[in-house]
Amino acid sequence: MELGPEKLKDMYRRMVVIRKFEEHIYDIYTRGLMPGLAHLYIGEEAVAVGACAALRDDDFIASTHRGHGHLIAKGGRIDRMMAEVMGKVDGYCRGKGGSMHIADMSLGILGANGIVGGGLGIITGAALSARMRKTDQVALGFFGDGALNQGIFLETVNMAAIWKLPVIYLCENNQYGEYTAASKVTAGHDLCARAAAFDVPARQVDGLDILAVYEATQWAVDRARSGEGPSFLLCQTYRYRGHHVGDQNTYRTKEEIEQWMARDCIRRLASRLTAGGSASEADLRAVDEAVEAEVVAAVDFGLHSPMPDPREVVEHVFA
Amino acid sequence: MPRKLTFAQAVREAMAEEMRRDPAVFLMGEDVGGAGGVFKVTVGLLEEFGPERVRDTPIAEAGFMGLAVGAALTGMRPIVEIMFGDFITLAMDQIVNQACKLRYMSGGQARVPLTIRTTLGAGRSSAAQHSQSLHAWFAHIPGIKVAIPSTPADAKGLLKSAIRDDNVCIVFEDKMMYRLEGDVPDGDLPIPFGQADVKRPGEDVTLIATSSMVHVALKAAELLQKENISAEVIDPRTLVPLDREALVQSVRKTGRALIIDEGHQKYGVTAELAAVIQEEAFDDLDAPVARLGAADVPVPFSTALEFETIPNEARIIAAVKATWGPDGKKR
After folding, report:
1. Which of residues 134-153 of B touch A (CB under 8 A)?
2. Is the pTM above the cut of 0.90?
3. Helix (H, G, I), strand (E, B) or coil at A99
4. Which chain A residues are within 8 Å of B97, Cβ to Cβ?
């Protein structure tokens, strides 16, 4: 499917929402307004938005500990996300999950996940369920380069392949698993070969190019929806910030970070929009400003939401 | 009209009836289809329901448990068979970190109607990796219900309840009981979780026993009767939720309690139940609560060693008598 200018501008806007959301997360975290851990998605926005643009509302995603971008891209409400990361009662999980466990079952968001590779079983099972319920829904699992070395990756891709399940395995290779370079702990120069070993078609994608991500995902979604089975996408990307807010980044150089930042995914789409005449610099600035106001309002929503009643601690263990 | 069924037949009947009743129910696991299960529990299900709903999996416990969690989250009601209870260690992340916590972590949004069936119990010369009784691990974790039936009728009724429950449930079947016969009532009769069952009424001592240990306790009770000790045998049937009231009432009546369970004794089911009794019936106790679990060693292979690790009638009788003290007098 060819992307029209309106769709492209919406994709631009969503990437900016993610960027600004994460910048505000950094701000509230460092001001002590958010407890726990904050894993920022800044730099990787094109992957989440490009992939989710190829999905339908009733399709499923599973996310990771670095999940804010995926949730926003799939349609998650940023005010309820902000409330959740602050542990407030209006949060998606009434303050019981926090940043690493936000879910919106009504949007097919089967949850961020605190375990590396934790979403792989869930998303493959959602694909099995779609098949057994005879729907044409598809399931897309985001996971990082770290999860490629978890056994569950092999186990689930194997089952998806033998049963031709409508699932897309989307690996975001942001080059680091926590503080360790993926290249140091990952064997094989061609990571797509891991999927190919199961006869699962795979594509390597420039994860900074949102159109390339969209196109590859659309290819995989088409395959899944038409019963051709699973696909694997390896998106090369980069996180600008540390593993979490507070990470001192001692394991990589400033030069390396700057090299990646020079290819920024948001600026790249902005240039394309302005060069193609779909939007002017002023149009995009207006989008940026509107998004900033929206995110500030979301922070405000979170700050003004009450803490949960302590009596809620025993609720929601069982249905 | 009750019929005589084996434990395995009762489990199979529960699954077949639930699969007929609800198209969302399906079974997956290693060799559950064509082979009918390593313990022949699932024989005939593939023929009736087909390979989509009676799904043979690769030997990948974490993987297929993970798939079941995702399927349960999105509208299906999977039953997962883990062939030997020992193999469940491979799927612990999927059960403990994912299935058991998704509802709570999502603030009540998620629903995980997943039933896990697996085995426990030594006595088959299968050694340390095919004989463990790991039910206490699951009872320790919030977010999962735990059933541990002792009879064919209970196995059928509890499994039906588990499959209909909107939560994660695990049912432990003692692999030594699959051929045990018992009366099973006709009809659609799920047994609610959280209801203990008095398997033999008595006056002088309460034997709280689980799974196959119920039968060992019943034999011991018969032998004790010959010595004029009247033992009540009570089976909690589910560890989570636990029918505390039934256990406590029995102990209030008898004043003595011995707890028998095939899990390892330390930090196990016997410890928890002993704590419940002393918390709620301390003033009614005539003797300290006694307990018998499996020996705190890995299950050995040789028959000369293996049976040393499991509670038996003689140990039960000795433990009961010990509650009267060495001189046989009331303490």
Report:
1. 142-143, 145
2. yes
3. helix
4. 114-115, 118
